[in-house]
Structure formats: structure tokens, C-alpha cells
Amino acid sequence: EPEVTQTPSHQVTQMGQEVILRCVPISNHLYFYWYRQILGQKVEFLVSFYNNEISEKSEIFDDQFSVERPDGSNFTLKIRSTKLEDSAMYFCASSEGVVGVSGNTIYFGEGSWLTVV
Amino acid sequence: QKEVEQNSGPLSVPEGAIASLNCTYSDRGSQSFFWYRQYSGKSPELIMFIYSNGDKEDGRFTAQLNKASQYVSLLIRDSQPSDSATYLCAVKPDSGYSTLTFGKGTMLLVSP
Predict the structure, then answer these.
(1) Inter-chain contact A56–B88, Cβ cutoff 8 Å?
(2) Least CB-CB distance to B32: which of A58, A99, A109?
(3) 3-state SS, residue A57
(4) Pairing mode, strands A31-37 and A43-50
(5) Are B73 and B22 in contact (CB under 8 A)?
(6) pLDDT digits over A26-76, tens only?
């Protein structure tokens, strides 16, 4: 069964360092997402990406964050200067089409656990 | 602020019983509703979705939607210990292109 794959599974970084989280969405999917989940809290939307541009972003997704689709398969999330409060599980996700239309749903990768020290 | 509320639990049921998980949402215009299961330290895994008022059944799972009451529920019949997990309710808001708003989840514990 096709799946969203993410690397690394776990990263420890020092405060102020740049981090890049990588994802390979499901191959025929057109919409890509990043969500995060701070330990013990709910899954929060960060950004959605379609047709090589950001389609929506939350207030969490400030200037410290950026996303890129550098080639035909990868989708990356960059955090420019990490803070302690960025420690969380970051989930990449994808959907074939617009969520809620024609049964389209979001499928999540296994996550990248980021620890900022 | 669009909210999705769930009782955090834990909801404890014996093996073989019916587990009932509930969710309310604030955005009256929401049209699409999803239930995900999340094991500890793992990613959310889609169980089912529902768009229309009423019931939708898939195996041991039944989703129920009442848009007038802004309420969606998930019933799990013949609960198994392997069903022990956190169940996340997710709603696609009326505004917004393709995002989901998640509740905090209800922890379900099924005892053998």
C-alpha cells in the first residue's frame, strides 16, 4: 500500500540551528501538508501546498518556517532558527485531491520527532 | 477560532463491548468529518469519514453525524484490546481549502 515516508525519524538539534525535515508524499497525490503535534497536545495544521505553492498556512507557520518541493518527489519543511518550543512530532501528509471532495482524505507519514535542546 | 472538542478520557470498556466516542465542533458550516486512530508515538491512521447526516458503517465501526447538533460520534462494536488507542476527531472547516482541524482525542482502553 502506498505510504508517505519521512526522514529523519528523530532529530536532536541545538536552539538556533536550522533543521530540514524531508517527506516523500504518495506518488499520485497532489496536495501536501505539514502538521505538528507537541507532546500530549493535539495535531495542529501548519501549511498546505499545491501546484508548487503554499495554498494555506496557519498562524504557527511564521517566517521561521518554509516549505519546498525541490524535485518531483520530495517535500521539505525547513525551520530556520529553532526554538525550544519547536520540539514536537512533525507529520507530513498528502491527499489525492481536495479534502472532503469525492472521498479524498489526508494520509499521514510516520512523523519526524524533533527535539530542540 | 474553530474548535473541535472531545472528552480526553480515558474511556475504559471491557473486551467485546461497544465503545462510544463523541466529538462536537463549533464551525456550523463544516461539511466533512473524519475519525483517526493514533497509537502512542505513532501517526494518525484514518478509520473513516462521514459527510452526510446519519450513520455510516464500516466493519466494526459506525460513524454518526448530526449537523444540527454539531455532533459526530464513532461507535466501535466488539471492542478488542488492539483498539486501545487515542481516537482523533477531525473536521474540515467550511472556510479553508483543504485543511483539517483536530480535536485533542479520546483515549480508549479496552481491557481483556
Answers:
(1) no
(2) A99
(3) strand
(4) antiparallel
(5) yes
(6) 999 999 999 999 999 999 999 999 999 999 999 999 999 999 998 878 999
